[in-house]
Every structure is written in structure tokens, then in C-alpha cells.
UniProtKB/TrEMBL annotation:
Residues of the signal peptide: none
Entry keyword set: Hydrolase, Magnesium
Keyword Magnesium included in the entry's annotation: yes
Enzyme class: hydrolase
PANTHER family assigned to the protein according to its UniProt record, in alphabetical order: 2-PHOSPHOSULFOLACTATE PHOSPHATASE-RELATED
Family (UniProt): Belongs to the ComB family.
Lineage of source species: Bacteria, Pseudomonadati, Pseudomonadota, Betaproteobacteria, Neisseriales
Pfam families listed in its UniProt record: 2-ph_phosp
Catalyzed reactions: (2R)-O-phospho-3-sulfolactate + H2O = (2R)-3-sulfolactate + phosphate
Name the record gives this protein: Probable 2-phosphosulfolactate phosphatase
Length: 242
């Protein structure tokens, strides 16, 4: 495939088609969904919980959560566990959370890489260090946003989130990866304002979820590396041991 970037160790592509066609060609598939799946997974796993990704608005979610002895996350709420990162800050260790998402969760479920990682700005440095320790080629997938008609929309927050990871990796990088790194370097000193003026951020502000943006803009605050294992994201054992 002309867009596979196979000559580089660090690659960047967008959305579901990238995961479907390219994840099997990389040791690691890093799903970057800053607003909000990646940030939510980081916070939940950082608290010692497990996150089970689930397709957005797919049937059977309640039954699946019951079978897994898990909490079913709401779409976005201030008052119960949901796709809102702020709602997960008090999630208890040992909890299991079924987290539907039309972007991050959907991409995670189709990845064929040896390891699939949920990433955001909060855990960018931890994810990069984990990748350096583990070795192997890396495919970073910026989740983007899906329009109502199913078309994929560029999401600036995911582009700079990927760039935050890429800038710490010391391997050959594709032009697309280098572009994300450069975008992050330009934005890194003003992340919260940058995020709140994106299309996704402006929507969250309008809906009263400004706290989610503040959490998502916290760069390198988390040491958690959520790795997908048997259908659930858990903090990577190597990082947990550290």
C-alpha cells in the first residue's frame, strides 16, 4: 500500500481504515483519542480499573456489562461513570468499566497489532518510554471524529497528541509523523486553550464539560500505559512494576 509508510519505524495514519489495513504490520498500534476515549482510559486504568472498549450504541451493551461484572459507562455525564474523563477520577481500583466510543473504542476492537495501547496527552511520555523499552515498529492512529454521515473528520487534538509521543521516540519517522511532532511543538505551551478551540473542544464547552478539556490538556502527568489484553485495557505490567 502506498500509504503504509513501511520504510519507517514510527508511522502515523488516521481512523478506522488505518487500523484495519495497517495494524497487523506493526508491533504496536497506539490509538490516540484525546477528547475523550484515550484520556478516559488513562484516568480509569491509572486508578487501577479495567476498561472494556465497546462499539458506540451497539446493541447488547447492558447484557455484556452484566456478563463481565462491569459498570456500563454513560455516553457523557457529570454524575455517573461515562466517556467524560472527569467522571472517572474517583473510579475505584478493581472496577471494570465497559466504555462505548465511536472512535477510540471502535479502533481498539479491530487492531491486529501484537499490542494495542490507548494514548493521550496525559500519558504521552509514559507511552513513548514504554514503546522504546519494548522495541518494534509503531503505528500511531489519530482517531479523528466521525461526522453524522460516517465521514472521518480531522481532529487537531489527536494530531498533537500523537506528536507528543512521536517527539520522544528516537527512531526513523515518516513525514506524517514528523508533521505531527512539529504541530505538537508549536502547541505544547498552550495546550488547554488549543484544545478548547478545536471543533470537539468547543462542543464540550458548549455542553458544560470544560473540566474534561482541562484534564485532557495535562501533558505527561500520568505514568499509566493502558494495554489491551483479552478485551480489556489494563495498566501495562512493565510500567506498573516501575
Amino acid at each position: 500500500m502506498h500509504y503504509a509508510q513501511q520504510e519507517y519505524s514510527v508511522r502515523l495514519q488516521w481512523g478506522l481504515p488505518a487500523v484495519q489495513h495497517l495494524s497487523a504490520q506493526a508491533a504496536h498500534c497506539v490509538i490516540v483519542d484525546v477528547l475523550s476515549f484515550g484520556t478516559s482510559v488513562d484516568i480509569a486504568c491509572g486508578n487501577g480499573a479495567e476498561v472494556l472498549p465497546y462499539r458506540f450504541r451497539a446493541t447488547g451493551a447492558a447484557d455484556f456489562a452484566s456478563e463481565q461484572q462491569a459498570i456500563l459507562a454513560a455516553e457523557r455525564s457529570h454524575h455517573q461513570p461515562s466517556l467524560s474523563p472527569a467522571s472517572l477520577c474517583r473510579l475505584k481500583a478493581g472496577s471494570r468499566l465497559v466504555l462505548p466510543s465511536q472512535n477510540g473504542a471502535a479502533l481498539s476492537l479491530v487492531s491486529e497489532s501484537e499490542s494495542t495501547i490507548a494514548a493521550c496527552l496525559r500519558n504521552a511520555a509514559a507511552v513513548a518510554d514504554y514503546l522504546d523499552t519494548m522495541g518494534g515498529d509503531v503505528l500511531l492512529v489519530a482517531a479523528g471524529e466521525l461526522e453524522a454521515d460516517g465521514r472521518l473528520r480531522f481532529a487537531y487534538e489527536d494530531f498533537i497528541g500523537a506528536g507528543a509521543i512521536i517527539q520522544r521516540l528516537r527512531r526513523s519517522k515518516s513525514p506524517e509523523a514528523l508533521a505531527a511532532e512539529a504541530a505538537f511543538e508549536l502547541a505544547r505551551n498552550d495546550l488547554e486553550r488549543q484544545l478548547q478551540y478545536t471543533a470537539s473542544g468547543a462542543e464540550l464547552v458548549a455542553r458544560g464539560f470544560q473540566d474534561d478539556i482541562a484534564l485532557a490538556a495535562q501533558l505527561n502527568l500520568s505514568a499509566c500505559v493502558p494495554v489491551l489484553d483479552d478485551g480489556a485495557f489494563r495498566a501495562g505490567r512493565e510500567m506498573a512494576a516501575a
